[in-house]
Every structure is written in structure tokens, then in C-alpha cells.
Amino acid sequence: MNSLSNDDVTGLTVAVVGLGYVGLPTALALADAGATVIGVDSDRDRLRAIARGAVDLLPLHHAQLACASAGDGLRLTPDATAVGTADAVIICVPTPVDARREPDLTALSAACASVVEHAVPGQLIVLTSTSYVGTTRDLLVEPLRARGLTADEDVYVAFAPERIDPGNERHTPERTPRLVGGAGPRSTRAAAALLAPTASLVRTVADPETAEMAKLWENTYRAVNIALANELADACDALGLAPVPVIEAAATKPYGFQPFYPGPGVGGHCIPCDPHYLLWQLGKVRQQAPVVATALAANTGRPARVTDRALDLLARSAVPARGARVLLVGVAYKEGVADVRESPALEILDRLTAAGADVAYCDPLVPSVRVAAGTLHHLPDPRTRTWDLVVLHTVHPVHDLTWLRAPGAPPVLDPRQRGASAAAVTGVTTEAEVTA
Fold first, then answer.
1. 216-296 and 301-435 agree in CATH topology
2. Contact at 8 Å (CB) between 421 and 254?
3. For 301-435, CATH number?
4. Who is most buried in 21, 85, 329, 417, counting CB within 10 A?
5. Is position 92 annotated as part of the catalytic site?
6. Where is the composition biased (Low complexity) (predicted)?
7. Of residues 112, 236, 270, 362, which has the active-site annotation?
């Protein structure tokens, strides 16, 4: 086994378990820094897509993928036993919630169990998947001990939460600080050295639990502030004000304020899921978190509120809901990505369909989506049809909304409170208000 020194990963073999939105950029950053990377994923279709370059990545990471694929810096395999040949293992598997909003640890438990099974002395194991406080000890440190491998002595174990903002070129992993909390000082140093080439800086903390809680709190903070922004939008509506100018005016204060914007709800891999891990664990120790719980409930209810606004606008236009032609602009959970996980658009489509509306969507990044009524497909040119209502859910940079400003254009429901203007193209996806 090689060892880490001076934050240099050249010559190291690193296994990355899970090649999704976190694992693949992590693998590419390490390969770009000189490591030999073994990409492990049980999904053979995903491996084939990566090999073809048919994956949703920023241009920088597509360039890294092309470079790694042309050489020998990245080897793809579905074989979990390959982790036994690596100097370091990074676990990057999803941690969703189930239908009851409770943690679904199926993938994480299986991945950690497999890594523990094939762990070898001297190896560094880094968990990046967001989970409850204590996960690293429960799923790695203690099972390794049961195998006779003591963390920070025989093997090195750390938690280093992912901080990836998909589709955002300003916040690539390489430009973002990274947290590392090891099972002991040697584990912390080894993990910090491994991850240093992949981040703008590495901040070490006392233990895995501190890093785990910090990650949960980052996204809980965002969830609460999004709920607050949505509440502001409702308050402004009641008072005859536009919320975005209010937010932008408040944001001129140089301290004590960070702007969040209203929208149709929350989506993606983090904000709709991670705070529920915290509430779930606090519930087990009978600790209440009423502000967090209320915010999450408010965010969950946002798609229904957007649907109600859409139906109200149709009624005000004397258009019956049954048979009304409604277009959603964008179904991805945020601008610039092809990801529909937990996207509010899916619930909005289902609710509008249940009300009898004839729904369609336009999102060039998402060829098709599965909804309750079946599969819907991207409508390339919505101008070829007549609409009773257009809902601006997610406005990608490639969307041309000028047709919505033309005479005779349909009414628009703007969940981001920004209107069908050029400014909407660069806006932040969030809540809802009617513009006609």
C-alpha cells in the first residue's frame, strides 16, 4: 500500500464506491490530481453511460472524464471486491428518505458492509454520504472492530460530507471548502491529505459526529430559509407587494442577512431529504425541533399550493380545470441540471392531471418523466400549441421565453415570482405568484 504525504495523491489507488452526482466528480478530481481511480457501481447502465460520456456534468468535469477515459486514470467496474486493492476508499452512495420521510439506509448500509468486508490493514475509508449523527461509527468503525481492525490504528476512517452544487460552475467541488472528521488524529490527517486536491481548502473537526451534524445543519438551514422566503411571498401577496424587490432590498445589508427566494417547493438530493435525518434522530431521543419541523412541512406543502394557484387562475379566466391545457416550463428540480429527484414539478403535474387538466412540459434537459398517469415527454416547441396556462417551474439558460411576452400569450403562473422576462433565465427556482 502507498501512503499519503504532503497532500499528494500521485501513485495512490483510490476506489470510489457509487458514481452518481457526488461520486463521479470526486473520482474525476482525484484522477486529475494523479491518482489511479477505481470507480465501483452496481448499476451497469450507469457504468456504460459514464464510458460513453453520456452523463450530466459541468463542462469542466466532462473534460476531466474525457481525459481520464483516454488514459488509465479511471477504471470502471461493478465488482465490489475491487476495493480491497485500493489504498483509499471513498463511499458516495445516495441516502434518500422513504414515503414516510424517514431515512432509507438501504444503499448506504449495503455499501458500508461491502467495504468493511473487503477492507485491508493500512487502508483509508472515507464516508461522504449524508446521514444521521453516528453513522460513521455505526456502519464503519464498529463493524471494522468486529473484523479485528481498529480504526486509527489498523485502518483509518473519516467522515467528509459532500458539498456539491450540481449545475453551478461557481461552486464546483474544487472551489469549495471541505470538512473532515476522523475517528482519530491519524484518520483525520490521512483523509484531509486525500481530499486536499479536490477542494479549495480542508477544515478538520474533532470527530465524525461533528462533521455529520454540520452537514445536516447546512441543509436544514437552507430548508428553513426557503420556507421563510415562501412565507414572505405570501405576506407580500396579502399586502400587494412583489417579494423579490423586498428580498433584494434587504440583501443590501452587509451583515446578518442572506437572500433566499420563493419558489414551488424544494427538490433534489439534499434539502428535501437531509433535514428529515435530523428530525428522525431527534425524535428517537425525544428532542423537539419545532422550527425545523414546521419549515419542512411548509416546504412539503408548496407544490399543492402552486397547483391551487394554477386552478384559481384558470377559474378567474373562466377556463374549467377539466380539459384545461397547462404547460410546465421545466421539470428538473433546479436550473442547469437534468435531475428530477424530489422535483416539485412531479407533484404539480400529478395534481393538475387529477383535476382533469391536459398537462405537458417543456424541458430540453429531461427527455421524459414518469408521473402517476404514465410517461410524459418533452415538448420541443410549445409555441405550436395553444395553452390556457403556463407555469414557470424551472427556467434553464437554454429556455427562450420571449413568446410569453408576445400579444395573445397565455396567462403565466410564475413560481419564482420573477415573470417571463430575460431576468427569469438566470433566476433561482423557488415559490409562486400569478402574472398575466
1. no
2. no
3. 3.40.50.720
4. 417
5. no
6. 419-436
7. 270
